[in-house]
Design a protein that fits this description.
mainly alpha, two-stranded antiparallel sheet
């Protein structure tokens, strides 16, 4: 049995996309998120089950029934909470990357200086 966890990142991305484009197909949503159609279906069902989304039928341009995914009031509130949490996580990742980049710059400068120093010694 495979357990799929709906992370804050996917919850945020799905809610954001659906808020902007509630008539998006599951296939297009999967393509945009770069995940499988099955995973999108699972995620949407999970969000509907916890009351963050509501799916309603409508007729699309090809005269077929399709779904429109609307954020519920609870979904709008949850998106706000997830957005703040996701932003905090991304800011921490950014800060960690800045530290790592600075360490790499120092290492690169030290390596460069050592290489230059060895060249000076060998030329004597």
């Amino acid at each position: 049995m495979i357990i799929i966890v709906l992370t804050d990142e996917y919850r945020y991305k799905i809610l954001k996309i659906l808020e902007a484009n509630p008539e998006i197909s599951q296939r297009d949503l999967a393509r945009e998120l770069e995940i499988s159609l099955g995973r999108v279906n699972f995620c949407l069902k999970a969000l509907i089950d916890v009351g963050l989304l509501k799916a309603t039928n409508f007729r699309n341009s090809q005269n077929k029934l399709a779904y429109m995914y609307l954020l519920t009031p609870k979904g709008i509130e949850e998106k706000s909470v997830i957005t703040a949490r996701f932003l905090k996580l991304k800011l921490q990742e950014y800060a960690n990357l800045q530290v790592e980049i600075e360490e790499l710059r120092k290492d690169a400068n030290q390596t460069s200086n050592m290489k230059f120093h060895h060249m000076e010694i060998n030329q004597r």
